[in-house]
Design goal:
The structure is a single chain. The protein is an alpha/beta fold. It is built from 7 helices and 15 strands. Strand 9 and strand 10 (162-166) form a beta hairpin. Helix 6 (251-258) packs across helix 7.
Length: 302
């Protein structure tokens, strides 16, 4: 069976920093929703000079909360885990206030602007105009006066997604790649299931003590959760194949087979998730389909 033990408890107050450990505080932006949970988590890292991870939406109250929490300590770096707008829209104004340098994985301009009109969340659109001052790729380390963060490239939810490992602490800021409250949305064309699975496998070999995600509460025993999420994706993949073998020959027909009793507003997200699995199965040669893939394109098991 597909059983996941989600952790939805989260103690916080909007506008007030919550300590997450020495030199780490969390502020939750007030942009709650079905895909952002209580809101986007902004992390303040450091004791003397600070890094801000994911400033969240462009919200004056949230920005002032960040500046108040920083106090007299300079904010030298603003780091984005990925360029979805619920994470990066607050960067520009915070940069003006602080003069900090911005850091993110560089999106490939040659890839163009892919349409996300079917995106499951309105705040989930991509800010294609965001260009960081410093382009950080997997293995690069960003350093401040008393902190260092090593980038781990983890595409899947987004092609530019980074997790950030805090040196000497066994703490990883996991963005939207691994969260405790729900599984990650992998929505084509922005999301790619093959990349997501590979990125989960990268984290299996680590020995971290805690993940601090982009939404929801902290995640203890993180590698155990990563293993559970890999098993969940394999189960979901099998359920897609089983539905196909039972005669559900399109994505539109597969969705109600494996998401029974789904609320109507969640159908677009479920359809994109199924599409991501079907694309992965096509890549592995287990499903055949004429391309481009659409909700009503006929599929067949190989």
């Amino acid at each position: 069976m597909d059983t996941l033990d989600f952790k939805t408890d989260m103690a916080f107050t909007y506008g007030e920093p919550s300590p997450m450990g020495p030199g780490i505080a969390r502020l939750v932006a007030k942009n709650p929703g079905p895909f952002t949970f209580k809101g986007t988590n902004t992390y303040i890292v450091g004791s003397t000079s600070l890094a801000i991870i994911d400033p969240g939406p462009d919200n004056a109250a949230h920005r002032q909360a960040i500046l108040k929490a920083a106090g007299s300590r300079p904010i030298t770096h603003i780091i984005s885990t990925h360029a979805h707008r619920d994470h990066v829209d607050g960067i520009a104004a915070l940069k003006v206030e602080t003069g900090a340098v911005t850091v993110a994985f560089p999106r490939d301009p040659a890839a163009g602007r892919i349409a996300l009109k079917a995106s499951p969340s309105g705040s989930y659109f991509v800010d294609y105009d965001f260009k960081p001052d410093i382009a950080a790729k997997g293995g690069d380390t960003i350093t401040g006066a008393d902190w260092a963060l090593t980038a781990i490239h983890t595409p899947g939810h987004a092609p530019d997604h980074l997790c950030l490992a805090l040196a000497g602490r066994n703490v990883v800021f996991s963005g939207d790649h691994v969260m405790a409250w729900n599984t990650t949305v992998v929505a084509p064309p922005e999301g790619r299931m093959a990349d997501y699975v590979s990125s989960l496998e990268i984290l299996l070999d680590r020995e971290d003590e805690v993940f601090l995600p982009g939404h929801g509460g902290r995640l203890l025993e993180p590698q155990r959760t990563v293993k559970a999420y890999l098993l969940h994706r394999r189960w979901r993949e099998k359920s897609v194949l089983d539905a196909l073998l039972r005669g559900a020959s399109t994505i539109r027909r597969i969705v109600p087979e494996i998401y029974q009793g789904l609320a109507p507003q969640m159908i677009p997200a479920a359809s994109l998730s199924v599409q991501a699995h079907v694309e992965y199965l096509i890549e592995k040669g287990q499903v055949a389909c004429d391309l481009p893939l659409t909700p009503d394109r006929v599929l067949s098991a190989v």
